[in-house]
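INFO worker-7 received task bundle
INFO bundle size: 2
INFO processing item 0
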Amino acid sequence: MVYKNISKEQTIKIIASILCKFDPVGLCVRGNQNDNYISEAKLLAIILEEKVNFIHFWKNIHDVLLKQLQIDVKKQVCRKISCEIVAKLSTRSFAEELRKNPALKNMDDDLCLTIHDYFIVRFDSSGKVFINGEYFCLCEEQDIESLLTDFVVDNEVIYVLFSQKYSLFKKSHIRVYDRDNANIDGLTKNNKVLMIFDNKTLIYKRENLILKVALLINKNNKTIEVYGKKPQGELGDILYSFLGLEKESLINKYFFEDSSGNKCSIDVYNPQACEHSRNYIIIGIADKIVWRYKTNSNHEFEKTFYLEKNDVRIVESEFNS
């Protein structure tokens, strides 16, 4: 089966990137830049052109890797690779379909639509729609294009983000008002209002509100941002594979590994406004965030991020274990 809106070349590139991400036989770790699973990806793309049922696609992955590289990859690993390939191709196909609508030309490959800097929409496979990291509504897949188009072209409404204390018992902290009937002056004086915006611009923002989310983990791009900053700082551009999550009382612990095998963890204290989807992990608000990075030579870095009024304070430490 050929995925709608995706060329064979794009399909091969996506499959190869996911094989590199899992690197089941160690090609990428060994630095073999001349292969990087392209040959295997081409064979798997041919199989996908012919397959209708993907339940047993993991077997094809296993057989191709065994035949091409003489390595018997575990069934569990092949299943994970299969699920990610199918999910990524489905997401890319849907994104390409949505981008045919001129209003949705800014939709990215991970189904994130940036209308402007203060109006960013994401949705996940369960139909949950998020605006600026805040849950907004549930939407059926067949209605997504219509909803997103309304976000972009509807000039008759404004969006108001309330504090969580105001909307503690509401599913969404964002309310939509008819522009002609909204008392914008009154809303700006309401201390429960954090932000007001429409499809064109930011109308109002509380003075001490930092709009960047506390933590943004992009699983596909393997990137981490804490209040819009790369936590590794001067260590350069590092890609992190997400390993897992542990929850303790009022603390979320996230674990990662980079391509060199170095370990990293992030502790989020009192996380709020959380979104965990296939492609993203977003924490809107936190008391503090502690980032720890340990190299294979047992050199450790640690940064603690505190949100204080209009700024983020960072406390750094470095030591050998």
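INFO item 0 finished
INFO processing item 1
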Amino acid sequence: MFYTFNATTQIAQAFDESSIKYVVRSDSDDYPTFEVVIARFLIEDGVVISLLFTTRNNENNDVAVRIQDMINVPEDKLSKVIELCNALNTQYRYLKFYVGNGKVNVEYDFPASTPDDAIGDMAKEIYLRTRVIMNEVYSVFMKAIYA
């Protein structure tokens, strides 16, 4: 299947080849300004995580990778969770954890201007690594909030 943005097509093809389940959403069927490849996975704690690969143009294959609103953080635990995010940010070089609007979010540093022949494989690798990391860190966040 082909999409408006080349990066979306490359990611979808790589996911298809690896049997990674996903859906593609956009803001318009006719002339979208962005497309999002959403790949969901179940972690060991029984939580479904949605990993979003957002593309906005065909010029440089710029892809934003996000996990939004992963965990709600009670106000009295904000400082503890922010400290945990900072510690995890030093442990995991490319994933960035932060608290925004009372929720834990995750961003991935995806290189800008990624070549066409690399974008799909890179997205697949990001997906696989993020699954492993989420299995490692989710329970750590739960302990910080509820212990």
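INFO item 1 finished
INFO post-check item 1: The chain has a mean pLDDT of 93.
INFO post-check item 1: The chain has one domain: 6-146.
INFO worker-7 idle
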